[in-house]
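Example 5.3 — Acyltransferase family protein
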Amino acid sequence: MAYRHDIDGLRGLAIALVVVFHIWMGRVSGGVDVFLTLSGFFFLGSLLRGTDNPRTPLNPLPHLKRLVRRLYPALVVTIAATMLGTILIKPPTQWTAIFDQAVASLLYYQNWELAETSADYAAADATISPLQHLWSMSVQGQFYLVALAVILGGTALWRLLVRRGTPKWFLLAVVAAGTAASVWWSVIGQQTNQPLNYYDTASRMWELLIGGLVAIVLAGIVLPWPLRLITTAAGLFLVVSTGFFFDGAAYFPGPLAWYPIGGALLIVLGGNLPAGVRATPARDPITWLLSAKVFRRLGDISYSLYLWHWPLLILWLSHDRDNEITLVSGMTIIVISLVLALITEKYIERPLRMASRAKSQKTPAAAARDMLWGPPPRTGRQKRQFVGATALVVVAAVASLGTVGWWSATASSRSSVPYVDSLTDPDHPGARAFFEGVDAPDDVSFTPSLLQVGHDLPPSTMDKCISTFESSEVITCVYGDEAATRTIVLAGGSHAEHWISGLDEVGRHYGFRVVTVLKMGCPLTLDASVSDDGEQMYDSCAEWTPDALATIAGLQPEFVFTNASRPVGVMGPDVTPRQYIELWRALEEQGIGVLAIRDTPWLNNGRGPVRASDCLGDGDSPEECGMPRERSISPINPASLAAAGLSNVRLVDLTDGLCGPENCPVVVGNVIVYHDSHHLSGSWVRSASGELARQLGPATGWW
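Solution (predicted structure tokens):
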């Protein structure tokens, strides 16, 4: 094959689209998908072509060494710089997640680290990780290992068993089967769990495999001139227009990913020129344009540019949280990214990637170094560049791993949440500051601390007494006065669960037991739905719900403590879904009372959830980090009307301990209210236990 400069240019165009859409559009442009396909085109295509030669060695180590020299140095340096920027700019509350992602990126499983939390990749803001973009590098790294194992392993088996001919077409069939399986899996994932599907290696694999197939199948096809022009023009339109027509974060790598990838494949096909023919502006304008020096140079630095642009964008937003990205600030980020990419490519990537392989006498230390980075160059200048790049990479790696090690070693001291009795502590009255007008001194630090509050979880979570998203098992645990005969069942999802810290204390004081029947993200209803159209929450929630209802019926409690309302969308006044009312009626028929507690405000700035600790760590006040009361809570408890006519329902409302007349701050009485963006901290809930007891007394008639 003649070297295709236009494919280098296409790679440069793809990264340019990624950068522009990340910075100004807040959308996924399809450029990464094109980049993945081109990676498969070069790497897998080369492996498959090598199987034609029966003398091709099957040792994977040379391939791995080249990959390490090509990918690892720039990655290590970028991660080290990003960690330094994180320490200087990001609040310490975000360091743990970012450091975990640094390790995941260095070990090439970042996509799975993000898949566990289904991180939103649709738009950038200050709360997003500056290493989030490295998921695609992890997918590529995993693909390279799979490709080496399949192609080299398949070739070895062929030579052992068949011993004649070449296995290229057999392996091509294997790759085609893998492509079809991955396409099918991505379609299933699009329908069932798109956030997970976006990062899933199996769903992404077809984007790289198809590139390898094209490298072999379309390599010798040369279209007539008019078709070349039409094909490349159509391909360029598809690649460039993707981000304008739809946001790939919501659809890729499902069927719509064929739109940009199909465009890239059309450009690859239309760029095949007859032997001896060069692209000209008149006959092959798209191929000629992509072969231009500016696009080829972008292709040369595309890897480093991709590595640098996202951390700079996120750290910029973290530093200047009040301002949107403007034309000037966006161009500034691009210019800095380009400069860093050029420096990285010239002084780190190139010296290590292009090191000479000349044999020479080596000490054991030099031999060990050469196994990793390749032999050093011959000339004095090249040697200095090689040594300098190697030293920088080693220092960056040691600094990164040392920082992560220190942070991990000191984790226990940061995560230990002190017990504060807000009912008697004059410095941290918590909810009593609103309920009882207790003054909280201004010169006292908040409790828990910003680094501790994320660990201030309900005891049921710590005791693993809540069913996870994956499990449909009903788990019951007993809190309060375990020997009591009177029973309250705490049932529902996490917004019912976070009240256990208060119910436990009230139960032990007033002599009743609290039995938990809880599942993450699964409010208790009759049909596992809360929406107007009756769509179920998710599969395991639907499986858990009937068993949970049967468990409650078997316990025959005096009361079920559960939620009375939930917010409208991501933010807005709360409402009482009809499914809650249907549950209350069903419990009434069984002679079971209902203690329905109003939901809490959810912290959201309109662009996404806001973690209380992150916002406070950025220097904002509790009021600035909180929510306007009118935007998050209805003027009147919506359950008041919903429960009318139901004799078994008693309403519990602690909103006035969360919100003042105008604002619902994230700190009340020097106690941080939320351990994330919408779940209450155990410390605040305990501070509200006095008011909870005052409302439960007449509601139950027990005191």
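Remark. The first strand starts at residue 476 and ends at 480.
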